[in-house]
């Protein structure tokens, strides 16, 4: 294969998100209606990992940028691969590798963001919200933490519905 071509498997966006919890509620964001990707859905705070940055640092940075707060006891909850190559408006970047963390609120005053509406929600309220399907699939693990990290792959059809998935909860030991 020529050096200047990119096979589609390497066209990937890497993201880091945080489920912040405090007093039995979670700080989530209802994405702005102006967003290209999944407008108006409720989602953990986060975004793309910058060049030279690891997912842990990206999650902390995104939280400070979007909400103005810090967390403690940051924990990796899930690593998901969303393949959206069949969704016409997302086919230019078909693979999204997403690191989901959880953390306890530590400091700072929550400030509203141009990214969307920040809101503290109880678990029952979260489950009623419109969410990205792969995020919904890990919700029970996030809301009822167990040992281990969820590893998942999700393939979407042209309408943004999951047509194939594989998930596994495992404890990684070094």
From TrEMBL:
InterPro entries documented for this protein: MutT-like, NUDIX_hydrolase-like_dom_sf, NUDIX_hydrolase_CS, NUDIX_hydrolase_dom
Signal peptide (from-to): none
Cofactor(s) listed: Mg(2+)
Keyword list, A-Z: DNA damage, DNA repair, DNA replication, Hydrolase, Magnesium, Metal-binding, Mutator protein
An annotated Gene Ontology molecular function: 8-oxo-GDP phosphatase activity
Gene3D superfamilies: Nucleoside Triphosphate Pyrophosphohydrolase
Catalytic activity line of the entry: 8-oxo-dGTP + H2O = 8-oxo-dGMP + diphosphate + H(+)
Enzyme class: hydrolase
Family membership: Belongs to the Nudix hydrolase family.
Protein name (record): 8-oxo-dGTP diphosphatase
Protein source organism: Candidatus Sungbacteria bacterium RIFCSPHIGHO2_02_FULL_52_23
């Amino acid at each position: 294969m020529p050096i200047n071509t990119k096979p589609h498997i390497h066209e990937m966006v890497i993201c880091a998100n945080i489920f912040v919890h405090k007093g039995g509620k979670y700080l989530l964001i209802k994405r702005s209606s102006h967003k290209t990707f999944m407008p108006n859905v409720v989602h953990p705070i986060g975004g793309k990992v910058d060049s030279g940055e690891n997912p842990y640092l990206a999650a902390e940075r995104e939280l400070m940028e979007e909400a103005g707060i810090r967390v403690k006891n940051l924990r990796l909850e899930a690593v998901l691969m969303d393949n959206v190559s069949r969704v016409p408006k997302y086919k230019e970047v078909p693979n999204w590798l997403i690191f989901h963390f959880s953390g306890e609120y530590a400091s700072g005053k929550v400030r509203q963001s141009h990214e969307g509406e920040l809101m503290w929600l109880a678990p029952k309220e979260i489950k009623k919200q419109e969410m990205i399907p792969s995020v919904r699939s890990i919700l029970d693990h996030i809301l009822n933490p167990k040992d281990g990290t969820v590893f998942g792959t999700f393939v979407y059809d042209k309408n943004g519905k999951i047509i194939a998935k594989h998930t596994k909860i495992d404890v990684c030991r070094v």
